[in-house]
Task: structure prediction
Amino acid sequence: MTGDREDPLPGPSIPVLDLGGLLFVSIQGELPDDAAVQLQEDVTAAITRTGSRGLIIDISSLDMVDSFLARVLAEVAASSRLLAARTVLVGMRPAVAITLVELGLTLPGMATARTVTDAAATFGVTISDTVREERNAT
Result:
């Protein structure tokens, strides 16, 4: 602590999961600006480190996406594209889509999918529900 002000606490860290050729990020709740910027840096570093060909970003738990987060997501997609990885945004709620359109915001270079399973399929990866398959086999 210096003087009368406290140093700000770092924002929540968003894990970037390596799923064997694909990276997965799930944004769970409101994301402070500093955490959004850190996410951009973490994703870029993870793509470089792993050589992943794709990135799936799940925003299904977000009730809103502001202009700053929309810009960060677009920049993540642009950075990924420069590193030869495609980005697919998953789980956009209708209210989020309407807000983005009303604000005139687009997410260039970023495909969308309804579910993580649908997103993985765009990369030729099949995700199956093993629990459901086991139930059907018995």
